[in-house]
Amino acid sequence: MSLSTQISSNLSLEEFLNLPETKPASEYIDGRIYQKSMPQGKHSILQTRLSTNINQVGEPQQKALALTELRCTFGGRSLVPDIAVFEWSRIPTDENGEIANKFESYPDWTIEILSPDQSPNRVINKIIFCINHGTKLGWFIDPNDKSIMVFQPNKLPEVKYDADILLVLDMLSDWQIKAVDIFSWLKVNS
Length: 190
Hints:
By secondary structure, the protein is of the alpha+beta class. The protein has helices at about 15, 40-60, 120-130, 180-185; strands at about 5-10, 25-30, 30-35, 65-70, 70-75, 75-80, 85, 110-115, 135-140, 145-150, 160.
């Protein structure tokens, strides 16, 4: 089922959050429930490798944490970005000091990877919503076009290709990655 397929409506956000989780995850957007696409090969490898690379840079010095398929509820929506990156100081914790189960805030960096059956505009709309609610950086990765559209508050999006260096969160600025580096992960025999 594609992200553009409406599953249900007429539920409040609270009612939606009380429903059992679906696989793949469902999202609550403007009073409607949409089920995300089941990740396929290209999507999955990019999601896995990118989150691993971000965590290799961000975790050791407690700068940032990348989490995959994490439900983030804020601004009247409940979204599940492919990768949600939180600055370390913004990671919610429970009474035991452990990472919380519920994230009721926007990610600092949201990353979406386009799947073949997804509507690009609907995915871009999610990134823009995040940016408008406090997210500092958004990436829209298109594996077929080998491009990454970069979103920032109060700026027009930029599309990056090939050897273009990609913008990352300020606290990770000592890490540089290019569009070509990300798409090289699609090759299984290098």
